Predict the structure.
Amino acid sequence: MNSENPKVTVLMPVYNGERHLREAIESILTQAFTDFEFLIINDGSTDHSAEIVESYTDPRIRLMHNEQNSGLIATLNNGIDLAQGKYIARMDCDDISLSQRLSRQVKFLDENPDCAVVAVKIVLINADGREIGDWKGDRNATTEDEIRRRLPIISCIAHPGVMIRKPIIAKYRYDPSQHYAEDYDLWLRIASDGYQIAKIDEVLLKYRVHSAQITSINNHVRFGLANIRIKANFLLGRIVKFKFGSFELRVLLGLFQDLVLLVPKLIVKSFVKN
């Protein structure tokens, strides 16, 4: 590995992630592809996360500290500035990357220079690491055409499993106003400008689902409201820039669909609350 100019920067924010952190770290350190730096940003953790990272002596690890908790979006944007790699691979501190993940993604981007982002398929695991199923949206959008058709409706890209060309992510960055769905907003903006988003048709990431993410009326409503906000802000930004084509029209139709679907859920939530 060239420590000054690694091919890949694996960017992993950490905030109070001690429970699954070792498993996440080791899944990266044991990758078949080795020309990477592992940029871990401790976002003001109050548990033993920093000590866990510091216990590793692998020279590929670069541990940075935020003096206080800055939040995911600010930490990711800081990581983009610090990254030295040609490609940036995202990773979360509770997920598991399978050993061929980086090698498959690097090979894909090297062979497809017009592709800006390459994702992977995921399998869902619970807090104990047991596989509990697939993400339907992920499996229903594998090809570039399928991804482009589905994105105006809903996200179909697992954020912790993507690899992005650094000039692209440095250009677009994460929007601080798009809390909880900053990745979906990013995919919309990239796709709207005509960049290719691809997905490797292979499960290469184990995505951990926690009890707090279990489906409920409140989660459905919160998710629906987030989608509406993301799409509305995206469309407003395109209108301001006088950029409104067929992709934006499909996003607008997706926004109307979200509104139609959300109203019954708000009614149910109101009855439950009362």
Observations:
- The CA atoms of residues 33 and 103 lie 5 Å apart.
- Residues 214-220, 267-274 have pLDDT under 50 and may be disordered.
- Residues 246-273 form the longest helix (28 residues).
- The beta strands are 8-14, 36-43, 61-66, 87-90, 96-97, 115-125, 131-133, 163-165, 196-208.
